[in-house]
Amino acid sequence: MSSPSARGAVSPRAAIGMIAVAAAAAFLATFNETFLNVALTPIMHGFGVDVATVQWLATGYLLVAAVFVPVSNILYRRFPTRGLFVAVVALMVIGSVIGALAPSFGVLLAGRLLQAIGTGLLTPIGMNITLAVAPREKLGTAMGVMAAMTTLGPSLAIVVSGALLSITPWTTLMWVFGALALAVLIAGAALLRTVVDLGRPRLDLPSFALVAVGLVGLLYGISTVFGGSALIAGLSALVGVVALGAFALRQGRIAAPLLDLRPFRSAPFVLGVVMTMLGLLFVFAMNVVIPLFLQSAKGQSPLGASLLLAPGILATVVLGPVAGRLFDRHGGRVMIPAGFAVMAVFALLVGLAAGHESVLLLAALYVPAVLATALVVGPSQTFGLSHLEREISGHGVTVVSTSFQIAGCLGTSLAVGVYGALTTLGLEGGQTADQAATTGFRGAAVLVAVASLLGVVLAIAATRTSRRARAASAATTADDSAAARTEGTVAALMKSEVFSLAAEDSVLDALRMFTSRGISGAPVLAADGSLAGFLSDGDVMRYLSAEHPRSASIHSFALPESDDLAKAFDDLVELPVMRLATREVVTVRADASIAETVSLLADQHLKKVPVLDAASGDVVGIVNRSAVNRLALSHHLERHRSPATV
């Protein structure tokens, strides 16, 4: 039995509560990824194990969490949201109790891996809840909150664990996390409700086995490339890649795939995922090498090293939602590449400051570096997911959540590996221990700076790709070559009678005009007559499918009015057209050639574009694809006219 979609039924107040629970879940999952890392030394001494063994508390955690991320989408669509959430968080509570009471290292590891199962399931469930209940026009803000919690979790964990370890034994960390998990469990039980139409999707065990082998092999190879046998690391990564390839092939051949791979067909989505990973790589890398350097080379205690990171961490929490709101209003065209650029510059400055006697300089320069990640991580997630259709957005969330674990493993392993390798080279070259550690730290800083510069390039490419993918249409443009050879300008082809909307009009006013004029979209003009946006009936339909799913079909408007349809129309009366209109409108000048216009319509996959006066910039017409098709057909007929009629 399917439950009603929460998007159409959840009140704004209830939605805020559910997003808050989802954000708390994101914080909880990422917080636990690094919370125990500071305690590895006392754990090693307490159980009498070596470094290679104790590292499995960190490496094993990331591996198991990554394996269970793809399973989350099956569970999310099969079980009620509240019950599923409570059960998943309960795993983390039980794992904490087992770890706190563990009589041996093996039992502690078992409890830790049980927590990891909860982490792998919890992060995508929280993101799916947010996507389900956040209003479309505020999705960037909601994802900004989620990104802030995702960034805050691993960073704050270092500060809190360092403070606790200075006064209490390491087992206190397990009890503290168990209490936090219990609080989130209670909040979820009180505030959550089912937010997806439930079905009976089944777990394809061969697919699960392939993705498990693939992710474990790949991540194990990455995590051991610097600290173990290079041959074993390479073979492990190769096995992982082969298994993931087999997994991808199987998903395309079975009726009910574990992971729908259609999101990978969207270039903007893929770029958004990679940019998110680069932002998280920066966070994980710097969060591990800065405390390591401060303790080994600057004589700081774990608590002291953690407190030096605290100002930037706390400021990032504040900036995350702000960055989300900016993305909602202006998009990521400037914000994301600017964020990556700031990360690169200040990462290099932090590396240079490592040689300075004062650790406060390093801490001060780290603040803008980590703040810039708020301009990257959340907006990149939103950018990628916003280019997916609703039916595959859940699979997109699974991909993004898996990328979190891969980014964490990459960032930690590469940064520590470069730090250790360069430190060893420095010692062998005759440097003092402090000088060698500084060399290693600067190498890690250069690593994240290069990754951030790559992010700048990808962000620019993502903007261009997004423009080409905007307003995709199933129809194709006819005979571009014939139109391309046609002389003349757009002014000769456009419709000069323009039906426009005012920025203060409601969406219902727009629908009335569409119906009376027999059109499917219209430009929106500001008070001074300038072009402010463009609204199509597709924009309205997408909004209705999100907020009033029972009234989403265009056929609903031809049927007798129902309660759901009445609510939808009441909503549209209060909704300004600019809330749904596309703000970055693709336009063409009136003096542009018809060949240029044909290319524009084809490249952007648009049905129509506003025509602007070349001098004043005012809207003077509309050129659409059907006019181009008619022109192409007329030239085709002329070329094939019978000789008898010449």
Provide structural commentary.
By secondary structure, this protein is mainly α. It folds into four domains: 1-202, MFS general substrate transporter like domains (Growth Hormone, Chain: A, Up-down Bundle), CATH 1.20.1250; 204-257; 263-469, Growth Hormone, Chain: A (Up-down Bundle); 480-536 and 581-645, Roll (CBS-domain), CATH 3.10.580. It is built from 24 helices and six strands. The protein has helices at residues 6-9, 12-35, 40-47, 51-54, 56-76, 81-100, 105-133, 139-165, 171-191, 205-224, 230-251, 267-297, 302-330, 335-353, 359-374, 377-386, 390-428, 433-469, 480-484, 507-517, 537-547, 563-574, 594-604, 625-639; strands at residues 501-502, 521-525, 531-536, 588-589, 608-612, 619-624. The strands form two sheets. Strands 1-2-3 form a three-stranded mixed sheet. Strand 2 and strand 3 form a beta hairpin. It is globular. The protein starts with 5 loop residues before the first helix and ends in a 7-residue tail after the last helix. Residues 1-8, 471-487, 552-561 and 641-646 have low confidence and may be disordered.
- CATH superfamily placement of the largest domain: MFS general substrate transporter like domains
Mean pLDDT metric? 78
CATH topology of the largest domain: Growth Hormone, Chain: A
The order of strands across the largest sheet is 1-2-3
Count of DSSP E strands? 6
| CATH A-level architecture of the largest domain | Up-down Bundle
CATH level 1 name of the largest domain? Mainly Alpha
Shape: globular
Which oligomerization state do the chains in this entry correspond to? single chain
What order do the SSEs take from the amino end to the carboxyl end, as H and E? HHHHHHHHHHHHHHHHHHHEHEEHHEHEEH
Please state roughly what percent of the residues sit in beta strands, choosing from under 5%, 5-15%, 15-25%, 25-35%, 35-45% or over 45%: under 5%
The major sheet is characterized as: 3 strands, mixed
Helix content: 55-70%
Tally of domains: 4
The Rg value, from CA coordinates, equals 28 Å
Low-confidence stretches: 1-8, 471-487, 552-561, 641-646
Secondary-structure-based class equals mainly alpha
CA distance, first residue to last residue: 69 Å
What is the number of helices? 24
